[in-house]
Amino acid sequence: MDFDSRLEEICDEIPLSQGLSQLPVQAPLNNLLQESDSEREALNTLDRKAAAGDDIVKFLQVLFHGTKGGDGMLRAVLADRAVHHIMSGVVSGTLRDRCIFFLSSQADSLPPQAVVSLAWKVVDGLCNGRDREGAALDILPKLLAIIDSMEELPKDDEEDDNKMTKEQLKSVLVDRICESNWHRTAVINVASALREVHLSTTDRKAIVEKIAQQLREIPVQETPPVAYQLLMMCSKGLYGFVLHELAKACDEIDRSLKPIDVEAEGQMSCGPAPSANRTELLRAQGTMLLHINFSAKQDQALCKGLIKYIKAHRVPLKPFLLAILLAIARIPTQESMIMDFLRAHVMGVYKEAKKRANSSWLCAVAPIDPPSETDAVFLETIENSHVGWDHIIQALVKIGFVLADKFDKCNQSAMLGFDIVVNCFCLHQIVRTPILEQLFSRIITAAKNASGCVTCLQQLVAQKAHEMSRDLTQLKEALEYLSYMSPTIGRALIAAVAPLFVFNPSFLDHVVLVLRKALFSRELSSRLIAVDGILQLLHSVCFSEESSVDTERLQFELVGCLRRCLGQQAEVREHLYEGLPRIFQSAPKSQAHIYELLYGQLEPYYEWDEGVLPPLNLSATMRASKENVKVLEPIVSLLSCIEDCMCSDSGDAGSSSSSENVAVRDMQSHKDRLRAMMESISRRTLKSELADWELDNNSDYSTPANIYLSQAFSGMLEVLMEWETTKNGTITASSLSKAAAVYGVLLLFHEAQKQSRTAAAGKKGTRGPRGKSAAATFKGFRSSTLMAISFAIDEADEEDDDGVVNLLEDALAESFSFVEYLLKTCAERVKQISELPTKREQNIIQTLTKFAYGKMLQAVSDSPSNSYRKIAATSAYECFKSSIDRVYAYGELDKLASFISVINPLECIADGDQTPNSVLHAHCASWRNLAGRALDESQMKVSEALLGLAGQCAVYLIHDDACTHVDWLAENVFVREIANVHLAKAVFSQFLNISRSAGHLDALLSFAKIVRDFLTVRCEVPPTQPPSQLAHENIKIINDATCGKAPFHMETSLIQTLDACFAESDCAIAYVTDGCIDGVDPAGVMETIIRRLEYLVAICHVLCTTKVSVEVIDGVTRLNTHLYKTMSQLAKAVLVVKDHECTARFRSLALSIGQSLKKAIFDFLSYCRDVVAAKQGDAILKKESKSKPQLVFAMETFEGHLLQLSEKTHTNMMSAFRRSEIRDLRLGRMQTMSSSGVDASSTSVRHSFLPTTTTKPAKRVKIDVNVAVKVAFTRGSVQGKRKRSGSGSSPVSSGETSKRPRTTPPNQ
């Protein structure tokens, strides 16, 4: 009988149902296994059973039991062969699972060498492709656990000298797995097997990266199980790293499945529908989000770990990473943490973009995603939530309102929040009711972002009006609080819900009822809201294209409500007058009623007799007492309303019925009377004297009655100016002349006011009450007239009608004071526009700026009046500067270039080169040429404005073009002997700002040397020497006239610029340290930063050797403190980059600081002590006492980092530093710097502080980090070193060695 038959017979006789541990040891089995060829026969039997699909587990159980108590070699061979069959796929299914379970349970009985060999076999099978599915990996955790329990690995005679430890073996196995390209079907088994293995952090990160890489290759349906296994690995502490790698892999898969022709980022509804594969991916990712949410509930540290990782590594938000955060935010205990983080992150992105927009160097060195990328991430996440990420819908709405509530300085983040709300409302019906509740709650309670909520509601109604009209319960409840809202919010709310009137007539009736109730309320605010609401309602009804109500009946009803307003307070009528012109244009059938109302209101105050002056009885419009004035009729608003209505009247009667013809005749009658009244008022005002109005220089303008009359008279004149300009529909030369004549009356009135105040002050011995200037009375003369004037000139210019253009220009040239008034009004109007202008406001900005700029160019070339040139240049520059602040935002150079091209069209720009940089460079060059000619003609104010325009463009130029502008300033402006202090300040600020932005630090170094030479010469020259010889021989703008009496403004500008340079360097270093710059070589960035700091160190050395003013001593001290803090951050970054060239260059920079700058700082502090003591300034002494210890602490911290860097790079960076120098805070003993200091200008920039003599390189020694840090932060370090070495002497007194170590700044 052969071995196989005998073994089968023995197996049949053993009762396996009793369990393997209870089987009796039988002699036949022992005898069979002790035969010489039993091992080979057992393996053959195992192979035959595996190939036949028989139960090999029973066979292995019998053989393992039979070899119990032996050396275990047969067990090792059988286990090895069983694993081979599992990897080859011969054993599969349930039998494979049973076999793995059995081998895992019996792995403890295997020899140690067999355990190690079996672990290698499992890993090699996976890496070589024999185990495609990774089926044998389930036994690997048990094998590695056994290896961990061994005291040491089994010895190998061949490699006894190179024996590995247990940790090294596991690392080698992990590296083997990570370096191999195993089949994608084994991903789940790999993740499942290794998640329970105790590995080091480095090995676990490598495994996670490998699995995330393989995640991109497996089918979409299999990604959730792999993600779940990765989440199980998070329990080992790598929360942020694992989730980031998972999110990065999912985002890459999503990008690969997106269609190429995707529409614009914000237009989700217009984009193509996701493909079938991408839909499956989004659904699979939705399952992952559920897994992540469940894991976060089980482990509360997961949320904190993820946020900490994102902050530490500056991880940019991507759609799936944002979805992960929002999925975790569904947990109540984690919601506030996630929302606060996302809000801070978004606001930080916008603030960072605003800071980087003014630094071309920082944008070039450390490019990051613009804020538009963050907006696109949120909008894409909303789009994905419509397909498969429905778990995060509620969290999306929450973060939208969280961002919208920050409606203060960072308006961009609030706008993003409202965009999120609008898109969620349009895509998801389930959140519409909660969104409306949130919006109405903020509107009713008058929250800080109530206006934004109304705008958001208007967008929702515009996009989903039909759906919202089905249930208006919430909206009706909100309108009940209309009388308690502010007039602006109430009017905007009515305008927002106006489209719903078409779909639901009953809702319109409800709104009318609410407004009628508010109109008769006792509160004035309620009446004002009612007036605004009725006007807005009438405007909306008249403009509706489709209506299911009787529009004409409703119009008459609303006009009747407005008629009742004329019997209420003056404030109510003023609101009515301001809103009637808009209704006049939108409701032609209401024009007759409006004319009738206005005529009836003006007639009681109008004098019909042409021979009577004045034409209006202003005193009848008010009731005065000794203390106050009660306004009976807002006459200025009434006249302005009449003027607006008549100028906007097209004269189209448009009806043929008899009843309507009668109405048209009545309207024409009232219109003719009003026109005659306005003409008479204008004509008789020009004929009248100020005494006719009782407003001459003999009037007392301190009484309440005269104050009101003066304001009413000024407002009336401004309305008459606008009337004369626009009454005929087109602007002509005669109309401009009449408007200028009316302005002449206004000037006479203001002159009379000044004379009256002077006389009153002379009589009483006190200063009289201040009145309003002509430029400050900006009420009636609005931007519409300015735009009409500008359009008239531009239109005639485009039609090549030189006659019309000349007539208009001649009419304006007749009165320079009138043009000055126009220009000042332009500047005021542009400043009044918000920082986020609408499209209409952008048109106003463009028109007014173009008008002001055109007047400035004419004044520069033609005007003989110097004062007019100054006002024109100043107004144009203010308009231009305010316009750029509102047009340019966050790197949108194309908008800025197109805006400037409209304002100042140039023919020199080539058709093929229309890039924003080329356009800005061309305009900058043209303004430089104009400024040069203005300087030649000694027009300082004009040249200051033109240089300001050029500087506004030069800030955004690329490096070479910006440097060209800086060089032009140095060659053409600095060499002029200018005595104007304001121009010099503007030139200094522009020169320094553009040099900083472009990274042109050569110019900053040269400027610092010039400042040092000027201040040093000024202090040493005897006072008898002529002042003209004090200026630098080439730079004449720095002289006694501009900087002699108060040079600190020049020094302050330089210090502020250098501080900004250090801040930019800190930002770039942080990018390198955190590793958040993609696609950029960190070593190259570090080299650029070090090169920049070499210049900055040279400039600081120049400042420390300069006899600066007392006012900037503290600024120089703080600047050096910032320098040492930046150097400490740079030392940390050098350790991160680990580049040999960067380390060598940093060492050179550190040596230059230790050899020269440190001594210069000590000498500067001694100089400061002497100057402050001579000045006896207690405030300066107090300020210096705070900044000086902080500087010493920053120096100590930097040297401590140098010690650590020396240890880790095996480079001695402390050869130029003496540790005893900065220990003594008593400056009287620090006389370390002598007159033999090295001049920064004598050598090149990089080696400007290095000594000329060569020294022997220091011997490389091994430094103990702990001892070095202790030496760096402990007093008496030299004496401590002497005690340890047993020799040497210390210059530090024994009293100082007993002091405690200082680990924080003395004043913090």
What is the global morphology?
flat
Structural class: mainly alpha
The strand count comes to: 2
> How would you sum up the major sheet?
2 strands, antiparallel
What amount of the residues lies in strands?
A: under 5%
Mean pLDDT: 76
Number of helices: 56
Question: Percent range for helical residues?
Answer: 55-70%
Q: Looking across the biggest beta sheet, what order are the strands in? A: 1-2
Low-confidence stretches: 16-23, 260-272, 653-657, 764-783, 1018-1032, 1222-1308
End-to-end Cα distance, whole Å, is: 94 Å
Compute the CA-based radius of gyration: 42 Å
Question: How do you describe this structure in short?
Answer:
The chain is mostly helical.
Question: Characteristics of this structure?
Answer:
56 helices, 1308 residues, disordered C terminus, two-stranded antiparallel sheet, mainly alpha, 2 strands, 0% strand, single chain
Note down, in words, how this protein is organized:
67% of the residues lie in helices and 0% in strands. The chain has 56 helices and two strands. The protein is flat. It has a two-stranded antiparallel ribbon. The longest helix is centred in the last third of the chain and has 36 residues, at 1140-1175. The chain is mainly alpha-helical. It starts with a helix and ends in an 11-residue tail after the last helix.
Describe the secondary-structure layout.
Elements: H1 3-13, H2 27-33, H3 38-52, H4 56-66, H5 73-88, H6 93-105, H7 112-128, H8 140-149, H9 166-179, H10 187-194, H11 201-215, H12 223-234, H13 239-257, H14 276-298, H15 301-313, H16 319-328, H17 332-356, H18 360-365, H19 371-385, H20 393-404, H21 411-427, H22 432-444, H23 450-463, H24 465-468, H25 473-479, H26 487-497, H27 500-503, H28 505-519, H29 524-543, H30 551-565, H31 570-586, H32 591-602, E1 622-624, E2 629-631, H33 635-647, H34 658-687, H35 704-726, H36 733-764, H37 783-798, H38 802-813, H39 816-832, H40 839-861, H41 866-887, H42 893-903, H43 916-936, H44 940-954, H45 959-972, H46 981-998, H47 1001-1020, H48 1040-1044, H49 1048-1074, H50 1082-1104, H51 1113-1137, H52 1140-1175, H53 1178-1209, H54 1265-1272, H55 1277-1285, H56 1294-1297
Antiparallel strand pairs: 1-2
Helix pairs in contact: 3-4, 3-5, 5-6, 5-7, 7-8, 9-11, 10-11, 10-12, 11-12, 11-13, 12-13, 12-14, 13-14, 13-15, 13-16, 14-16, 16-19, 17-20, 19-21, 20-21, 21-23, 22-23, 23-26, 26-29, 28-29, 29-30, 29-31, 31-33, 32-33, 32-34, 33-34, 33-35, 35-36, 36-38, 37-38, 37-40, 39-40, 39-41, 40-41, 41-44, ...
